[in-house]
């Protein structure tokens, strides 16, 4: 077999193994190792490339952002900041049709800015928001759909684990990726709120809900006590990066320290929960490092096979336009999103298309935002919509089925697709802050 044939077969084998239940980095690493061995007929070369990939990943200074932001997100969750922000948002939107849904989106957007995890957002707001919406006669599908749709903001609004993974694969600055995600993340949250207003106005049956008696507004002091800690934390992290006072690693360290101080001041942190957060941080960090290491040897294998260059020559030979290439890319991500998780999609697809994007003189930072938003749509689509599974497993309500969660999330997946098209057409939306 030619190197190109081996490269194509290896990509298909990786997708097959992941879909069969093999751990993602094991599938990437083993298939890449065997492919290099077959292409060069040299076991020692394959072994040396594996050692280089491990060394390069572990010694990367910017990798320190992963444990720092992960720890910060875990501490923030334990401090109860998500619930506080939700209560303030609910008060502000209470008189609007679908107002609790809008409050959920707004609270999720703020929560995303201090956690960076879609899974954490889905878990927290399933417990906080869904029971309240059900109690006020909202359509159960709408209730779970809002939580599922807004949970993906955690992977777009920085700090985001997926943006960090992309930055390693594409060799881009983590700080630049974080700044690039701010406007698209806020834009998606605003469009979600507009979509909920539209559904409440024109499809009230899908939204449901009843008018509740007016309650007293929170005092300014109470609002401040619930929002200022989160605002302060966001200002330290993103403000430090944006002004250039802090690197991404330093911002992660400062954010983790501030989150710990907030949790201690609120007396929500015990030694036991602190130790649990440290252990979870270690587990998550080790898993992501394993992923990045596997992606590194996978990229080397693709380069050795010449597959990216072959793909570039094929599209150039057919004189494919920019929109044709982007349409193929988005369709590929949407298809893989029905089978794989976001990290898998990034690790498999990005190394294939990076040389083509560079040849077209397109921004790799912009391409990263397109990649993450496109891949995140997969969190809402069957059969492997991870956010939907998390919501179902977190719910303590057997009357709401997994099908209800997927059907409720469908309108929000469509909204994400529309936002993705706008981001492709107007790259400045992703690059304005850099």
Automatic annotation (TrEMBL):
<comment type="function">
    <text>Part of the tripartite ATP-independent periplasmic (TRAP) transport system.</text>
</comment>
<feature type="transmembrane region" description="Helical">
    <location>
        <begin position="58"/>
        <end position="77"/>
    </location>
</feature>
<dbReference type="InterPro" id="IPR010656">
    <property type="entry name" value="DctM"/>
</dbReference>
<feature type="transmembrane region" description="Helical">
    <location>
        <begin position="232"/>
        <end position="265"/>
    </location>
</feature>
<feature type="transmembrane region" description="Helical">
    <location>
        <begin position="277"/>
        <end position="301"/>
    </location>
</feature>
<dbReference type="Pfam" id="PF06808">
    <property type="entry name" value="DctM"/>
</dbReference>
<comment type="subunit">
    <text>The complex comprises the extracytoplasmic solute receptor protein and the two transmembrane proteins.</text>
</comment>
<dbReference type="InterPro" id="IPR004681">
    <property type="entry name" value="TRAP_DctM"/>
</dbReference>
<feature type="domain" description="TRAP C4-dicarboxylate transport system permease DctM subunit">
    <location>
        <begin position="13"/>
        <end position="427"/>
    </location>
</feature>
<feature type="transmembrane region" description="Helical">
    <location>
        <begin position="178"/>
        <end position="199"/>
    </location>
</feature>
<dbReference type="GO" id="GO:0005886">
    <property type="term" value="C:plasma membrane"/>
</dbReference>
<keyword id="KW-0812">Transmembrane</keyword>
<feature type="transmembrane region" description="Helical">
    <location>
        <begin position="142"/>
        <end position="166"/>
    </location>
</feature>
<feature type="transmembrane region" description="Helical">
    <location>
        <begin position="366"/>
        <end position="392"/>
    </location>
</feature>
<dbReference type="GO" id="GO:0022857">
    <property type="term" value="F:transmembrane transporter activity"/>
</dbReference>
<keyword id="KW-0997">Cell inner membrane</keyword>
<keyword id="KW-1003">Cell membrane</keyword>
<comment type="similarity">
    <text>Belongs to the TRAP transporter large permease family.</text>
</comment>
<protein>
    <recommendedName>
        <fullName>TRAP transporter large permease protein</fullName>
    </recommendedName>
</protein>
<keyword id="KW-0472">Membrane</keyword>
<feature type="transmembrane region" description="Helical">
    <location>
        <begin position="12"/>
        <end position="38"/>
    </location>
</feature>
<feature type="transmembrane region" description="Helical">
    <location>
        <begin position="98"/>
        <end position="122"/>
    </location>
</feature>
<feature type="transmembrane region" description="Helical">
    <location>
        <begin position="321"/>
        <end position="354"/>
    </location>
</feature>
<feature type="transmembrane region" description="Helical">
    <location>
        <begin position="412"/>
        <end position="433"/>
    </location>
</feature>
<keyword id="KW-1133">Transmembrane helix</keyword>
<keyword id="KW-0813">Transport</keyword>
